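Page 37, top half.
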Amino acid sequence: MAAASDLAFDPWDPAFVADPYPAYAELRARGRVIRYEPSDQWLVPHHADVSALLRDRRLGRTYQHRFSHEDFGRTAPPPEQEPFHTLNDHGMLDLEPPDHTRIRRLVSKAFTPRTVERLRPYVHTLADELVASLVAAGGGDLLTDVAEPLPVAVIAEMLGIPEADRAQLRPWSGDICGMYELNPSEETAAKAVRASVEFSDYLRELIAARRKEPGDDLISGLIAAYDEGERLTEQEMISTAVLLLNAGHEATVNATTNGWWALFRNPAQLAALRADHSLVPSAVEELLRYDTPLQLFERWVLDDIEIDGTTIPRGSEIAMLFGSANHDPAVFERPHRLDLTRRDNPHISFSAGIHYCIGAPLARVELAASMTALLVKAPNLTLTEEPERRPNFVMRGLKGLRVEVG
């Protein structure tokens, strides 16, 4: 077993957050599993191990389907955080079978490939309109002008949230997602609780309205979804809607800005993409790999496991390092090189196993649509200033990306 105390891995260090990939290389060289005391976790940096553990049923996103907090050797969350945990713990991302199986099966009935295809023209039209506005203004902030409004509008359209109410969604989502960072502060927790209450109250009213007058939207679909007499509870519907919003745009926003920042830093690759738009699909996959929007994914150890001779006991928490796995030279040739023509690209940016991202097809459509619109309508797009990283480690993104249209 290796320890991480003398390594450069430090999720609270701005220098590490700016570029964690050299520290990941150190971790991979140190071993397959590293004990990290500051977050009370076991770090797993290798692609093969991360991929296998995402599918290992001895691990779980929750333990409460099998153990109480006390039996598992853990402390219950503070009572004042209850609204956040009620919201979070009823979403399928943080559930295990049989509840996860039931909810995902019901959600899948409303979240079908046909739904994604039906949205495709809307996504492309909106991407074109957003980029046209950016061009008309001569430039702006790629994050607030294109990367953010596109997925927010798409998931809101899917859910059936009226346009007048959509401005609230991104702040609510941002505050809730703050709790997914390592060791969140009391202030972060208070913001997440407040957002959880407000978002839940809003959705409860919207669900009540859709029960009276169903529409052609995902919330109406979730109300109607059933399988062998099973339905979603109201809390499960609320938690599912919030999960789809948070996962449906947080990662896409960050993938867009991370991706364009990577392209600006690799001008030869950007020139190749501008010369050949058929590279867009492989470029989307490579940019998701190259600067991963979700850097870390956690699992609880439900039964003792062994990694490379080290026993990880029940009650432990494992932190799978997606960013490190996506730069593992055992899987990716020259992983630190951005290669938009990379064909063998088994990145795990959308996770794997039963918790594989249900919205991955839609995310790919959104990323390709905004990239294509920018390539076509702003072929001489340039960066005007070096962007600043958000302080977050787990959800990796930028504070903004200022550009101009030549």
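Page 37, bottom half:
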Amino acid sequence: MFEAITRTAKQDLEDSLRALYPAFLEYPFPSSLDASPLRDAEKIPAALKSAPLREIGTAELGQYAASAITTVGSADDFKHFLPRILHCAVLSPSAYGFEPPIIASKLLLCDWQQWPIAEQTAVANLFYSAWAYKRLQDPDLDASAWDWIVAMAKLDLQF
């Protein structure tokens, strides 16, 4: 029985991840990124162009993900990379820039409650399905369920 529940939760998570990319497809790769003088405004885009969006690694995306909105780029820039940032958060939730509560804080800075419904739904579904799947994992191997529920609370998502 537990295996069936886990399989269903994993499928829901995979479906939510797949739905994220088309929901944010209208936001193109930024032609330039405004950045704090303390950030390397040329190095970050070079790393982001290293692979197609769905394949950018955490190492290449991490510096941008950690600095997005606060010291690098705009809300629309963030929206372009958000599907991959959330995807990486599921794969490596404790990696620099991919902590679910930090992503939730960036969403609040972007006024995500004012986004089109399709975008809000895609984001909310991902947070719900990530938490639902992660809570079924062995806490000694994957302790990130708590991070997802904290992020959901920050976003005022019911759980």
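Margin note: DSSP finds seven helices and no strands in the chain.
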